[in-house]
Amino acid sequence: TYDVADAVRLGVEVAGTELGAVRLDSGDLGLLAHQVRAQLDGLGATKTRIVVTSDLDEFAIAALGSAPVDGFG
C-alpha cells in the first residue's frame, strides 16, 4: 500500500510543477482523483494529468465521469 498524498508531494518535489502525469491504479479511483487534483493544484502542478488504470470496463469509466481524470488505461 502506498501513501498517495506522500507520493504526489514527492513527485512534484522531484519533477517540479511541470510533472507530466500521475497514475492511480487502486482504491476508490474517483475519490482519489479528486484528492490528488486538489493536492496537485495546491502544489502549483495545475497542468499535471491524472491517469487511472485498473480493471476498468465501460461501466467503471462511466462512473468516473465526474472525476478529474485525463486518461484511462
List keywords for this structure.
73 residues, alpha/beta, 44% helix
Describe this structure in words.
This protein has helices at residues 4-15, 29-42, 58-63; strands spanning 21-24, 49-52, 71-72. The chain is of the alpha/beta class. It has a three-stranded parallel sheet with strand order 1-2-3, covered by helices on one side. Helix 1 packs parallel to helix 2 (29-42). It is elongated. The model has no long low-confidence stretch (mean pLDDT 95).
Global Rg: 12 Å
**Poorly predicted runs:** none
Large-scale geometry: elongated
Structural class: alpha/beta
Helix and strand pattern: HEHEHE
Number of strands: 3
Largest sheet: 3 strands, parallel
Global mean pLDDT: 95
DSSP helix fraction: 40-55%
The share of residues in extended strands comes to 5-15%
Q: Kindly, what is the distance between the CA atoms of the first and last residues, rounded to a whole number of angstroms?
A: 20 Å
What is the helix tally?
A: 3
Strand order of the largest sheet: 1-2-3
